[in-house]
Amino acid sequence: MKKQLIALLFALVPMAAFAAPAADVPHSMTPDLRDQESLQRGMQLYVNYCMGCHSLEHQRFARAADDLGIPQELVEENLIFASDLAFNDQMHNAMESGDAESWFGVSPPDLTLFNRLRGSDYIYSYLLTFYRDPDQPLGVNNMVLEASAMPNVLEPLQGVQEMVCSETDQPVAGQSPDPLSGKYQSCDVLQVTQPGSMEPDEFEEAVYDLTNFLAYVGEPSKLQAQALAPKVLIFIFIFGVIAYLLKREYWRDVH
Question: Which domain holds residue 120?
Answer without folding.
Answer: 25-240
